Structures are given as C-alpha cells and as structure tokens.
Amino acid sequence: MKKSLTSLSKKISYILRHAPSDYKLEMDQEGWVSIQDLLQVLRKEKDEWQTLTISDLVEIINHSPKQRFELINDKIRALYGHSLDEKLKKHKVEPPEILYHGTTPQVAELVSKEGLKPMKRQFIHLSINEEIAMEVGYRKSSTPVILSIEARKAYHDGVKFYVGNDHVWLADFIPSKYLDIKK
Asked: CA torsion, points 85, 91, 94, 97, in degrees to nearest 10?
C-alpha cells in the first residue's frame, strides 16, 4: 500500500503543480481544485485507483513528511512547487529572521551576483533550517552550498515572503545583498 500511496502522491503533485488543465480541472487563483473532480481524474488514471476516496487523500496528506498538500472542505491544493503559467495568488507574511536555500556551488556563485530567482517555478523555495536546506542541496549536488538569507530584513525592505508549509517558505526574488554563502 505504501508504494501505491507514493505513486498516488506523485501523480497528485504533478496534476496540481504542473498540469491541472491537461486533466480539465478548474483551478482558482489560489491553486484550489474540487476534491471530487480530482478523484474522478485519478479513478480513470489507474485500475487500482478506481475506488479512491477522500479518506485516501487525507491519509496521503497526514502521512507525508513534506506536507505537499492542503485539504479544506471540498477542495485540495498543492502548497508549493508550481510551474503553471499563471502565478498563484499568495498572501505575504513576515518570515523568520533567517531562512536557508540549498544549491550547487555553480548556482551559488551566480546567485551571489544576480540574486535568488525562482527559475522554472513560480516561487523560490526556502528552508527553515540548515539541515533541510542541506537535504535539498544534496538533491542537486554532492557538494551542496547553503545560502543563509536575511529574510526578515529583506521583508522589511519590501521583499515578499509567503508560507509554503511548516518547513518551506516561498519568495518571488531575493536580491544578493540579503544572501550569505555558507560552505
């Protein structure tokens, strides 16, 4: 069952983050889609998913250490990682004093000059601590570099930050003057 839940979670992530229109799902400005509509799409996707219920989605959400989804009333959304053309509406929030970003040495060098950009995603993903940033960095490089971000100072200077979940913060662009490279 665990493998099936992982596969299902990945499929939901793909649909909600990157391709809702491919599945004819209507997404509002904040990324919400109807749970019933999503269940209909998923039930057609694989034979083993034909009996999916809201309880199955709740189980995925409750057992995911990365907190990728949010489910409220009759709607579900991915909390971060979107690559949709139309930018999702987020509400700015004052961040912690310091946030972190794990990356490659090559990107860190470029970022130190040009600032931190979302690249192919809608938002930059930031971590609440160095350990999580290091995990992210290792996905990209065997010798990751951790950027320390003066988030609260940047926020007070006009940089917008948004909550992704308990471990992930989001931002639009962070100028290099708020970044410190930790090697």
From this structure: -30
What is the average pLDDT score of the chain? Answer: 88
Q: What is the DSSP string of 64-128?
A: -TT--EEEETTEEEE-S----SSPPP----PPPS-EEEEE-HHHHHHHHHH-B--TTSSSEEEES
Adjacency order of strands within the sheet including 75-78 = 33-34, 75-78, 69-72
Is 75 in contact with 38 (CB distance < 8 Å)? no
Strands 75-78 and 69-72: antiparallel
Gap between the Cα atoms of 59 and 172, Å rounded? 31
Q: How confident is the model at residue 183 (pLDDT cuts 50, 70, 90)?
A: low
